Amino acid sequence: ALGISEVGDLIGKRLQDVIPEEIYTRLAASDIKALQQTQPIRYIDKVSSSDGYCTWFDVVKSPFKDKASGTNGVLIMARDISERYLAEQKLEQANLELEKLSFSDGLTQVANRRRFDEQLHTLWYHHIRENLPLSIMLCDIDFFKDYNDCYGHQQGDEALIKVAAVFQRVVSRSSDCVARYGGEEFAFILPNTTTEGALKVAQRVHQQIHELGVEHRGSNTSDRLTVSIGLVSHVPCHGDAPEMGVAMADTALYQAKADGRDRTNIHPSSC
Question: Is the dihedral of CA 229, 186, 241, 192 positive or negative?
């Protein structure tokens, strides 16, 4: 990795004479650290050769003092661990991908119900501790069963994907969560968001779904795909359970449908 093929190439030469300056500068910095700490240090170092090949080393540096001359120095032991390191990185990446899949809806690629429940549980109790408003929205595609009956389930899946993409564009904050709650129902978690802020999100959802312009001949509300939204913004208190927030949003969603669909209903207890 360092371009050294024979041990004889090292005899009588300084380290900076046989390795690239960039690598030497990095090694020298860790030498100083080892001397300052007066104890061994261990780390993994990546060395790139001129042809672009990378080698990973398990490096141990131990400070020492030559009793005869009084000179301070560093003993370096470096072991090539490239094969093991790359295998571990590949395994870690695979585990991350599996974790991502376990929390994602396979069709729409938004969070799944499991992820929503875990996020809500974590955020709910955080907002109790911090006395902050947490907004929850349940969003249902209007007359979606009729859509499937009219256009077929394959086109229904395509519509779900398009609608989910709209939801992902609308919730821009990394702390927000949009999930497929079940079937044609989606759920939003908007941390530290009052009714006013959540209503703006809901209005953007309606606007962008309208602009999507997906034909829906089976709807009694519009000739295009629409959604109904139930919204609650609540400062949870000690003793309140996360399920209470979902129940209030569901009550508001039921009312939005009863009022004619393609609208947002705000739960009366919202702040």
Answer: negative
